[in-house]
Amino acid sequence: MNKTKKWITYLAAAVLLTVIIPITAGASNSASGNSASGNAPAPTKPNVVQMSTGIKLNSTVPTYFYADTVKGVIVLSPEGMVKKAAGLSDAQIKGGASVYFSVTEGKTGPQAKQAVLTTAALNGRNLLAMLDIQLTQTTGGRTTVVPRTLAPVVLTIGVPDQFQAWNNFQVISIANGVVEVLPDLDADPRTVTVATSNFGVLALVY
After folding, report:
1. Which residues does UniProt assign to the signal peptide (predicted)?
2. CB-based contact 47:24 (threshold 8 Å)
3. Which single residue of 10, 46, 58, 73 could bond 33 by disulfide (Cβ 3.0 to 4.6 Å)?
């Protein structure tokens, strides 16, 4: 992807973000941060991302969170958009097709891990967290993992307290051998927001 296309993607994501945050934030007071739809195991950890203003953001898509190094990972893009980006047709969506995310740590393979560390070093960055983020779609009783979406999905990551003064983060995403370096789309020191089409490894670097 050339620089012009990248900036178009980032701009579109930023515009989307300004629309979605007020909608999501206004409705997020629950402890879990998960939508009621989708068929997935119950999360073992609360998944709410809190902004510096005190507003708590819940995920628009069921997101089952098992990580320890960050303070939540939520989806900001509308659930319908995520379903389309995951390749589901209108007929499948009307028929009850669902999507969900799971966030874990410690499952990254050696090649992907080395790719993250090399990319971070080339960008003068240090690793803060290496997350394994899986997007799954279920339709007609069949479950499929989606490593790359047809359009970018906007995610927000909660920054650990001890790193909030840094506020100069990037995210390295890797899926099926495709590596992307993503800028933080928000200015809040407590959060990192990115738009990505890769779902496999997402590494937070500073």
Report:
1. 1-27
2. no
3. 58
Residue 205 has phi, psi (to 5 degrees) of -125, 155
Tokens of 162: 């001890």
Instruction: Decide if 9 contacts 195 (C-beta within 8 A).
Output: yes
- Residues whose CB is less than 8 angstroms from the CB of residue 136 and which lie 6 or more positions away in sequence, other chains included: 40, 99, 100, 101, 102, 143, 144, 145, 146
Q: Compute the distance between CA of residue 143 and CA of residue 141 in angstroms, rounded to an integer.
A: 7
Instruction: Find out whether 199 and 146 touch, Cβ atoms under 8 Å.
Output: yes
3-state secondary structure of 105: strand
Residue with the bigger pLDDT between 92 and 26: it is 92
Mean pLDDT of 20-45: 44
**127, pLDDT greater than 60:** yes
> Over pLDDT 90: what percentage of the chain?
70
- Sorted by sequence, the CB contacts under 8 Å of residue 114 that are 6+ apart come out as none
Which of these, 73, 140, 141, lies nearest to 101 by C-alpha position?
Answer: 73
Which one has a higher pLDDT value, 127 or 12? 127
Show the DSSP H helices in 29-149 as ranges.
79-85, 90-94, 110-122
Between 79 and 41, the more confident residue is 79
pLDDT for 26 beyond 60? no
